[in-house]
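Why show two proteins at once? Because comparison is the fastest way to build intuition. When a single record is shown, students tend to memorize it. When two are placed side by side, the eye starts asking what differs. So, the first record is below.
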Amino acid sequence: MSERLRDEPLDGRLIHLCVDMQRIFSHEGVWATPWMERVLPVVARIVEKHPQRTIFTRFITPMQPQDMRGRWISYYQKWRQTTRQFMDPAMLDLVPELARYCPPAQVIDKTVYSAFSNPALLHSLKMRAVTGVIITGSETDVCVLASVLAAVDFGFRVIVVRDAVCSSSDAGHDAMMEIYHRRYSQQIETADAETILKHWK
């Protein structure tokens, strides 16, 4: 899959939005994402480039299913072991390899898929006069997907880093990368990490 990156500067108007790179999605977690270990060093290199322009999100599970609403209640009835009533809350922490960048990197918590479900994210981007987001993280076809489409809806430039996103479903990951690359080609750009690291000023 070739790059689809516009001829526009990668500069200070862009921030790195890293979605849900947490212990619960690592090899030690209930929702293990096997590819996370492979993309983690790549994500860390992007964070290291501009830690002060990185925002991490964390997917925070409820204390009990009834703390959520609608279909989320039945979701957590199925995944009760991930509620904070039963699970060690430390599993919701960022993986150590990324947590060490905070601060200066910022952390924003959310309780549903989209990073933009927490108004603090949009407020932070507006305060920084951000025009675009470079997106990495987990999972390509769930929280990354929801965050990407929300960023599009808000009018941000969106760049998905192909080798810095992962999923617990290979088929889901591959399908979404194809959709990001082709179906949304007017609003979503894709690039590999080396291109980002080389050109992000």
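Second record. Ask yourself what differs from the first in the token line.
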Amino acid sequence: MSRDLSRYDPVWQRAEPYMRARKNDVHIPLSFGWAQRLLDHYETADHDICSLAILLHDIGWYSIDMDQIINKGFRGENFLQSDVRYLHESESVRLGTEVLKATGWDDTVIAAVCEIIDGHDTRPTPHHLNDSIVRDADKLWRFSVTGVAIVCDWMDMTPNGYATRLEGQFEKLETDMGRQLAMEELEVTKKTLQLHAI
């Protein structure tokens, strides 16, 4: 289904300076694309809420030093519950609220978007379908060639090692379509990167 996504251009432009951390200028657009694919399948989801939430969900990494991001946010024991994970969520809410207010979105939309962003990495279960779509879109990019190439460095792993790890993470996706897309994308990635051989 084709939607006019240009309505989000002012939000992209206002948020762009905050995308200079942690390769978010790659991660966020790719995740936004995955969100649109999921929204094509789950038509009862709110397209504005999901699109805005995925666009703004990680801009809070901008407020955190890159060494802290990598060493505390992606490595070590229980890194998914590290202080920097909670901090990037709260900073994404703060900055996202500023961006949405500046681009004319109403308080109801802002509250719904921020409810998803706050806890998108650290909350054990989603609140609703919109939340599930954003959480899946946030993860799906990892299964792509670009995602494996970037995240394997963050995790201090080889591409093959990270792809093998991803094979055990399909069930962490919240939606049936998210799981299907992840499996399909990882197969393409493994073939493209010749991971059967190296």
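One difference worth noting in the second protein: Residues 83-102 form the longest helix (20 residues).
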